[in-house]
Design goal:
heterodimer, A: 310 residues, alpha/beta, Rossmann fold, Alpha-Beta Plaits, 2 domains, 6-stranded mixed beta sheet, 4-stranded antiparallel beta sheet, 14 strands, B: 380 residues, abc type-2 transporter like fold, 5-stranded mixed beta sheet, 5 strands, elongated, binds adenosine-5'-diphosphate, binds magnesium ion
């Protein structure tokens, strides 16, 4: 019996393309009304996973439910109740904004097409430009149109694949405000992204690399799960210092953030031993800090690379 | 299963509407659909329409009698022939014909006038370069009547006893290079089949690959639309286009080129629909195999070429070697040409055309089952 509290509840999902094992034993649980962030480097299998959730790809193995519907046996029902926004703009560029929305509405068998499209257009603020071809819109507007089109049939779950890639910060902020509004009214959202600020706006996160789920939980849980120790260094000639630090055993990452360096190690004791001589010999200011989400992701990616590349 | 799996008329209609809008905006495709038949019609139309005169003719006169000379003069008077050479040998005549310097060689045998006067019904040999049959057709048909009349008139009294007989001499025509001598009436029906093959296969071939290439296929597949709705919905505009093309060509055939129409027009349109369906199925199947529009286009040409060459449109079917006939018999165009010629020119009815209907049906079924099978794979 599927648990009604979960919008997505899948486990053991696998997908191969030829001999390429793209998604490995993926398990995801997204609660209703939750905004769930899906992170991972390019080619890690995010898009493939999302496609399996909305019935576009059939998993090689695995089981689970989406909105209480079986992902293997009921893809057709799932498609009706899920809104999927593709990574690449995939509406018809040679149709006008209005024609695109009307077409999508017809595909979902909606009854009140005219009013639904008109309402969507005015919400978008595109009523005046409804006769414009979709192909002539700028990136930000295309993204808004794509979001509007996948919400037209009032889905219970949104699957958004890198919805804000290439969109300016203001439009991104508007977008996230809208997502939070929707979640507050009960919509569940799974969203893949590369942006740290966006990851931090999610209720829960999952990090995937090489098709394998490496961490999942709230942002704090993910950071804590990595068990990192971090120091922040400020001062002059940081790039020379960074080179020096990178060569030390016990230092796992050195990352520049503007005028400071983050020096991170998986083993706090070893890190401390490694940097103590440097602290004494150079005139920089050192300060222990909480590791950030980004530190955690970089660490996760590095450890995944070690496992899969060797 | 349930709800979601049923064919939905409103979704299907949504796809039809979308295809029409896109077609309207796609100037190049639209130009091709309308332009292709018009250009072809104009090109072939000239060949059909033209009634070339003053065709260069060589005369090999072994008999230089007054009768022979008056015959040659009568030919020239008809305007169709212009004697440019008097040749001495068959070899020379042959050479001129091969080089294309003359269209006809008239051979008057040695004892022509003597035999004629004796009423022995002698033979005149006219060799025609029939590579372009429409160029020689009219000239040949004038000649047969003209010869008899002019000979009788020219020679008046002394040979009056010959005038009453139906044919004082026999005209033997050798059509060279094109033994079947396809006439203009064959061209228009053939053109119909060729244009339909080209546009139907290509347009549908592009229809699906375009969605895939532009990434819109993913959006389409994410909606509850069924493959059957998508495939058939996309076909509808092209059926309409095919029918428009056919009507255009038929109208031109009837009113411009006066091609006779013996059989039932309704039956003709029924066979046209069948032929369109077979080609659309093939196009759809191509588009499930092709990765992009270029590949779809290449596949279309790969199919189009043998259709043109081996169906009997370009070369007379019976003149082809056995293997080529065997290949030709697999192609829908081959049977369609026979169907259209049969209905239009010979007035064939349903019973007579059946032997050429089932091969097209079979072709369509085979191609469609391949297409549906491959469509499933590409969804995944
Ligand atoms: N249809 C496909 N055929 C073959 N390989 C694919 C296909 N789709 C994705 N891949 C491969 O699967 C891997 C994961 O891709 P993807 O899911 O798009 O990753 P992400 O969305 O995280 O960038 C990549 O290596 C990609 O090349
Ligand atoms: Mg992706």
């Amino acid at each position: 019996m599927p648990d009604e509290n979960y919008a997505i509840d899948v486990r053991g999902l696998n997908k191969h393309f030829g001999r390429h094992h793209v998604v490995r034993d993926l398990a995801l649980q997204v609660r209703r009304g939750e905004i769930f962030g899906f992170l991972g480097p390019n080619g890690s299998g995010k898009t493939t996973s999302i496609r399996m959730l909305c019935g576009l790809l059939v998993p090689d193995s695995g089981s689970g439910t989406c909105l209480g519907l079986d992902v293997i046996r009921q893809p057709q029902e799932i498609k009706r109740r899920v809104g999927y926004m593709t990574q690449r703009f995939s509406l018809w560029e040679d149709l006008t904004i209005q024609e695109n929305l009307e077409f999508i509405a017809r595909m979902y068998g909606m009854k009140n097409i005219k009013t639904a499209v008109a309402a969507s257009l005015s919400r978008l603020g595109l009523s005046d430009r409804r006769k414009q071809l979709a192909g002539q819109l700028s990136g930000g507007w295309k993204q808004r149109l794509a979001l509007a089109s996948c919400m037209l049939h009032e889905p219970e779950l949104l699957l958004l694949d890198e919805p804000t890639a290439g969109v300016d910060p203001k439009a991104r902020r508007d977008f996230w405000d809208q997502i939070h509004g929707l979640a507050a009214s009960g919509m569940s959202v799974l969203v893949s992204t590369h942006y740290m600020d966006e990851a931090e706006r999610c209720h829960k996160l999952a990090y995937i690399a090489w098709g394998k789920l490496l961490a999942t939980g709230t942002a704090a849980e993910v950071v804590a799960g990595c068990g990192l120790t971090a120091w922040e260094v400020s001062g002059s000639r940081l790039s020379e210092l960074a080179a020096q630090l990178r060569s030390l055993a016990g230092v796992d990452q050195v990352t520049a953030f503007g005028n400071v360096l983050h020096v991170v190690g998986r083993d706090g004791q070893k890190l401390f031993e490694a940097i103590t001589p440097v602290q004494e010999s150079t005139p920089h200011r050192w300060q222990p800090i909480e590791p950030s989400l980004e530190d955690a992701f970089i660490s996760l990616m590095a450890s995944a690379d070690q496992v899969f590349e060797t | 299963m349930n709800m979601g799996d049923r064919f939905s008329f409103s979704r299907w209609w949504g796809i039809v509407v979308k295809e029409f809008i896109q077609l309207k905006r796609d100037r190049l495709t639209f130009a091709m659909i309308v332009g292709f038949p018009i250009i072809q019609l104009v090109l072939f139309g000239f060949a059909i329409n033209s009634d070339p005169r003053h065709l260069p003719t060589a005369v090999l006169a072994a008999d230089n009698s007054p009768i022979a000379r008056s015959l040659v003069r009568a030919m020239e008077n008809s305007d169709y022939f212009r004697v440019v050479r008097q040749v001495e040998s068959e070899a020379e005549a042959d050479r001129l014909l091969t080089l294309g310097e003359v269209q006809f060689v008239l051979t008057i045998p040695e004892d022509f006038s003597r035999k004629l006067m004796r009423g022995e019904h002698p033979a005149l040999l006219l060799e025609a370069d029939a590579t372009d049959p429409s160029a020689t057709g009219n000239a040949l048909s004038t000649l047969s009547g003209l010869g008899a009349a002019s000979v009788a008139r020219e020679l008046g009294g002394s040979l009056a006893y010959l005038a009453g007989k139906p044919d004082p001499f026999e005209l033997r025509v050798h059509r060279r290079y094109n033994p079947e001598g396809i006439t203009q009436y064959n061209v228009v029906p053939g053109l119909m089949g060729v244009i339909l093959t080209m546009t139907m296969v290509l347009m549908t071939g592009l229809a699906m690959t375009r969605e895939r290439e532009r990434g819109t296929m993913e959006n389409l597949l994410a909606t509850p639309a069924r493959p059957m709705e998508v495939m058939t919905g996309k076909i509808v505009p092209y059926i309409l286009i095919g029918l428009i093309q056919v009507s255009l060509i038929l109208a031109a055939a009837r009113f411009l080129f006066a091609v006779p129409m013996q059989g039932s027009i309704l039956l003709l349109y029924a066979t046209v629909l069948l032929f369109i369906a077979a080609n659309l199925m093939l196009g759809m199947t191509f588009s499930t195999i092709a990765r992009n529009q270029l590949q779809a286009m290449q596949m279309t040409f790969f199919f189009f070429l043998p259709s043109m060459l081996l169906s009997g449109f370009m070369f007379p079917f019976r003149g082809m070697p056995d293997w080529a006939q065997a290949v030709g018999n697999l192609l829908p165009l081959t049977h369609f040409l026979r169907l259209v010629r049969g209905i239009l020119l010979k007035g064939n009815g349903l019973l007579e055309i059946l032997p050429h209907v089932w091969p097209i049906v079979l072709f369509a079924l085979v191609v469609m089952s391949v297409g549906l099978k491959l469509y499933r794979k590409t969804v995944d």
